[in-house]
Fold these 2 entries.
Entry 1:
Amino acid sequence: MAHPHAAHGSAAAHDHGHGSAHGAGHDGHAHFAHATPVWQLAAVFGALLVLTIMTVSTGMLGLGEYEIVASLGIAFVKATLVALFFMHLIYDKPFNVMLFTFSLAFIALFIGFTAMDSQTYRPLVEAREDDVPFQRPPIEGEVVAAEVAQGGAPGDASMQPEAHPQQTSNTEHTGQP
Amino acid sequence: MSVAVEHDSADHGHHHDHPDYVAHHFDTAQQQYDSGKLGMWLFLIQEMLFFSGLFVAYAVFRALYPEIFIYAHQFLDKSLGAFNTVVLLFSSFTMAWAVRNSQLGQNRGLIINLSITIACAGIFLGVKAVEYSHKWDEKLLWSSRFAFDPSVHHASEGWSQSLINLSIPFAALLVLFALGALVLFVMKNVKYAIVCLVLAICCLAYFTGVFLARTIPAAVESVAGTNEAHDTAPTLVAKNGLLGLPSSPVREDAAPIEGQAPAEEGHLPLDEGGVPAADGHADLATLEPLTPAEENAALDSFEATGSLATHELHAADPPPRVGLFFSIYYAMTGIHALHIIGGIVALTWLLPKALDRKFHADYFGPVDNVGLYWHLVDLVWIFLFPMLYLIH
């Protein structure tokens, strides 16, 4: 861990003799720059590539609903590698690590509580959605059949085959006259 | 030279024991570095919380409407997402290396690594522009403007208007920076000439990204296309059949899938998996999108009869509210892309300092902090990629 400094003349030349009472680094010249070796950065990059290939290929395993768990799990491993090595958190001050992990904890709370809340009210939301049907905005050039539909009685299910006779398949499905 | 002196206010930091790279309100270089880094971490945490709002929106809507996400994922090209992931990871690698360069005073390496990082950002934006333009061409827009019509497939070959619109700023900046570099070289202002040159390279990288994004999906298709089609098509058909969704994957690139006839102008055959073909007019009726009134009528009759069969009427239609996915998609990737542009600006800010040889073991905070920001942007993408592109 100390080797990068040996390579750097100007820092190495005058970082001794001070700060012995305060511990290394207090005078601003001893070892506050930790340079991550290139091989380590390259190894992390290689691991991230392998994990990317893994996450793409999990789609071919057919894990079903566990797939999101697998791909997010791999994403967490990748994020940890980036945070620890590329962002130097493994060599950083514990206080910065603490800030980072606390924010992650609060994000987990944020997502967790909101998801719980939205699930709690889901039946209410769904009941409301049935009252107000979704209206897709008309596509450019689309024939809007609203007038045709409004000609029939509101809620009259039988009007549909007349409104669009080219949809031949629906009479057999609906069972309507 | 480096003793932490009790410097009196009269000195104002011009004391010979106070190096010029340490601001006068800091005692030591390390104090300055630690303060800057703490500030940067606080900013990054704020950024994470900001992005987490978007992740919450994603989680809530995915839980409420899973069918939207399953339907919409077919419009996102996995190979382009994976390519951009690799580009960002590589740029993170060169950025981390640049931080090392700055710590060791390796100035040439620092400039090269910063330039590669900036170029990678350009490639990323180029690929993103192609992806956006494909969606805009098909009117796969956010919820209020969503007007995708499954029966009309716009072949996204060549330069569509939306891709041209997205590329105009980069073309203009390319000319500007290339000319700027030329003029500054003539004026012997080498430092800013190099900065302009790197930015011109970034714009060129954007067009490289556009080129790659238009060749990669077809290449992936031809290399692994056969296996891919055999693996995914049946499962997709099965899943969509259960959900009442179209069984045929509508590709955003118009590359012909093996065994299919090449796409005709404006129409891609949709007959894979036994679904009515779109290019014959006989079955066009089933693919015609339902108007709101029709949809209501169909829903009414569905409720009246309780028949699932009526629901199959919707087979060719996107599920209701599918625009929600694209709202989330554009918000998340768009804000991420803005952060990439912000990263380019921040990295460019470092270049003149690097060219002035400002960075060394006691002063590399700016490089380190921009690096932290860049890695965070990468971190966000690491999560966005599986969440948006790898849905099944």
Note: Chain A touches chain B through 101 residues (CB under 8 Å).
Entry 2:
Amino acid sequence: MLILSRFTIHGHSMEPTILSGQIVLVSNIPFLFFRPKINEIISFKHDGKVFIKRIVKVNKENYFVKGDNEKDSFDSRKVGWIKRQNIIGKVIT
Amino acid sequence: MIKKIFFSAVSKVLPTKIAYAHCDIPCGIYDPHAAQLAAHTVIRMTQMINDLKVKGEPEFEERKKIIHQIARLTHAKEEHAEIVKHEVRVIWGDYFKEEHLRKYPDLHSLVFKIMKLASKAKQEVNMEAATELLEKVQKIAEIFFETKGLKPVRVKSPYPTGLDIILHE
């Protein structure tokens, strides 16, 4: 079970909030008690890779995520809604 | 302060993994300039082929030179028409998104026309097709800059084609 993980960010889609090369911590602890909410930055699995994006819509157990750098982000607009079970944790830094 | 110390300590202990803030490789570096440049080259090659002149019945050496020159020009025309197709396909397939299609509903048909015109410009020595190809590529450039929030501007290119190029303010 993931409690705390450290990730190096590759890509510019979360700029200016998180820059490419920046290190962030991700924890699943917040989501043990609360559901992921709109505006939270999460990490999730898609196609065997880990991504980070911001939640912009919630529909039951499905989450629509977008990069803060909207004009240049590979996100739910291309890959669709993210299922709850694929969410790894909340970006806490 | 405590958060900072905690983060620093944890960062040193935990192994790092990769998370993608994916912007689709190569990270948003898209530009319609290469397509425009290649479309100008197709026009220029067509002009140069059309400009080749033969006086009377040339000697073998002269014929050889002309054939050689036509081969080179045709090769460059083929190559650059293919570059147009490649560059436009990348912008269309990797950069443009659903929201752009909603705003520019003719985008798919515009790309389709570019593919067909580039093929025609390869198959024939056809100035009309080559010129129309450039016009369509310029349209893609205008749309591209607009989607980036930039105002496209049409300026006279410094190339011997004497035609325009689309830049942005």
Note: Chain B has six helices and three strands.
